[in-house]
User: Fold this.
Amino acid sequence: MKYVIVIPEGAADEPQEDLEGATPLVAADTPALDVLALAGRLGTVVLTPPSLPCTDDVTLMSLLGVDPLAFPCGPAVLEAAGCGRPVGDGAWALRLSLITVLEGRMLDLTAGHIGSAEADQLLADLQQAIETELGADGRGLRLAATAGHRGLMFDEAGRTFDALTTDPPPLILDRPIRRHLPAGEHGELMRRIIELSAELFADHEINQTRRELGELAATHIWPWGAGSPCRLPSFASRFGDLRGVMICCHHLPAGLASMVGWEVILLDEALLQARAGRHAVEALDEFDIVCVHDPAPDAAAHQGDVHGKVEALAALDEQIIAPIAGHLRTYDSWRMLVLGTHYTSTTSRCHDPAPAPMMLTGERIDAVVKATLSEEAAAEADLNVEVGSDLMEYFLFGAGIRRSDDS
Assistant:
């Protein structure tokens, strides 16, 4: 049996006035997905437990069959693993986001899609400022750029951050940052670093150039998602001898995949849609499970770009789903899952943990009601997975599904 999972991150959305009341998922031209959905089964899944934030580490862990409540690694640990910089014993890591704040509100969580070279220079200069300005409080802190607006902060000074409270940027767009500043143990230190970044970045030459070009400036650094080293159960220990590969362009899904024992094919973000389909087709001959993570719909929604989200979903259908589906049909037995993991609203530009629509098709998966994939059709379907970490076993083996209130 061959298995394929395609993750159009943040695909689900609300009806949009600009789309005459349709959602981007409905408005997008997705003929390959439509054919699969009509032959398969629709439903919803809750990948974010009620007590956790709706972030990619939580939803992707659930999808790969790992209970995020039982293994609270934190996104920084997964990101570090994906960068080949695992968090050392006794150390902690936090994710860093370069953001744009205007009049006290978080305007953009990517600092205008700032480039990696610019981010690297800003973090290098902030590292020097931390060493100079914070003195002993700054000892053991090490900053590292990863890709684009993303970075990491490693703490090797023996501090612990399990009592630190932080809010992820995808959940606080367009909101005053003063209401969401780090709090709890070492919260004051994190707030000082945010203030230091604001002072340093205000007239930084990189931001001066960006403003001259009409681009958003990186006004602040935002630390969040702290975690210490953790060991995740291997995929094989849960689901048997099935070899998996993650095809992605972000370090977080790459790190999660590697930590559960999957291989990783890491592509450039700008080229992922153009190349992921070919890589997936080639990988199917070698691996039992091929997973493609595409962040383009989510990125468009965070920018409030409804038409960009429609275009991203259409491109995913043409360049990823269609070639994979065509190749899958050359095998005797196969299954495919298309799942956006969470809503990302183009109205609020934030994540929403509402049950995400999904489509399953392939061997021994029969359509109950014939319909194409949409938020409404999925919500009305009979398949509703309330414990997201159960979905993988159901997808692979058709096993029973618990309700969220089951012990």
Summary: The longest helix spans residues 306-328. The mean pLDDT is 94. The longest strand covers residues 92-102. The radius of gyration is 21 Å.
